[in-house]
Amino acid sequence: MKYPLGYNTWNKEEKNSAIKVLDSGFFTMGKKVKEFEEKFAKNFGSKYATMVNSGSSANLLMLSVLKNYKKIIKKETNKPNIIAPSVGWSTSYYPISQNNFKINFVDVSINTLNIDPNEVERAIDKDTVAILAINLLGNPCNFSKLKKIAKKNNLILIEDNCESLGAKYHNKFCGTHGLMGTHSLFFSHHMQTMEGGVILTDNKDINDFLKSLRAHGWCRDLPEKNNLYKKSNDKFKDHFVFITPGYSLRPLEIEASVGLVQLKKLNRFMKIREKNSKIFKNLFGNKSWCKIQEQEKKSLSSWYGFNLILTGQLKNKRKNIIKKLQKNKIEVRPTMTGNFLNNPVLKFLNFKASGSFKNSENIDKNGFFVGNYPKDLSKELNFLYKKLEEEIH
Ligand SMILES: Cc1ncc(COP(=O)(O)O)c(C=O)c1O
Fold it and tell me: If one looks up domain 266-389 in CATH, what number appears?
């Protein structure tokens, strides 16, 4: 028995769509990307989508908008900070610091593994301008509370939804609760273009800004009617007019064409993931030796993977348990970054960390996850259960 972390969901349809693009002779960002953006936005109930070459690039552009699009941040401060959970992903954090914001780390809830709204309220200071919510491992944050806090304190709410495509909070898709939301289409994610990312927003001006940031900062991809730059009637001139301090993060037509195929399959994929989650919950819920991720009320997880925190008899025994699981060909990973504050990269980042990080530390020492994907995993999950139960004396 092998229980790998990820699973290739491509078949003939994806391959054929990629070949069609190759045959067309047009490879770089074009019609397919535009079509994918329109369909992706519609699917998740958002007005606009910008496709880029990865979820990390999506985060980079989201933070670059916050820094450079002056109309968004209304607070007057020279030292702006953004509140972020201490368990997340590395490239959720780097763009904050790279765009001259201080990362204001707060602890997560041990139940949901997401940013703890009480900790957010405690960490707000006069320089706080935004909250970055990360929906961890498919699980939605408590957006009712986060939105209330943001409104009360005049903060912007942004979402890293790279692990949680398809998840919903109060019947609204994650990735659409804040001003912008980012997504990853990497292998092992809910939809795979292998490399790829998307930013969703309902704000037209932000969407136009993103389109310029994505490709060299030029104005070329902006519609005639826009509030950022009045184009001249001279197409030759407008080809090389640069209006934002942009990057080159464009996706390929192949990625978009595969994305269009995967988008059609997404509902089916989600149903199988959910079926697996029921088996997982039946096996591992309510056990004295482990804790599974809990969901907020009226929320629907998209179950990126299955996380366990070892407790009771198994607390602090992760090292040997992981060795045993690996020996049995069960692929495991730490609970994402664990407590990100323990990483050597911190010396390069502008950050502050006040308060206790006891939940993140516990997750760091006792957490791990196994894969979930659109394939029946009943045998694999039962095997994992058997291997862990053997450790209880
Ligand atoms: C929360 C989170 N943000 C961002 C990313 C980056 O996505 P990508 O691998 O597409 O760059 C990941 C990667 O899985 C992630 O888990």
Answer: 3.90.1150.10
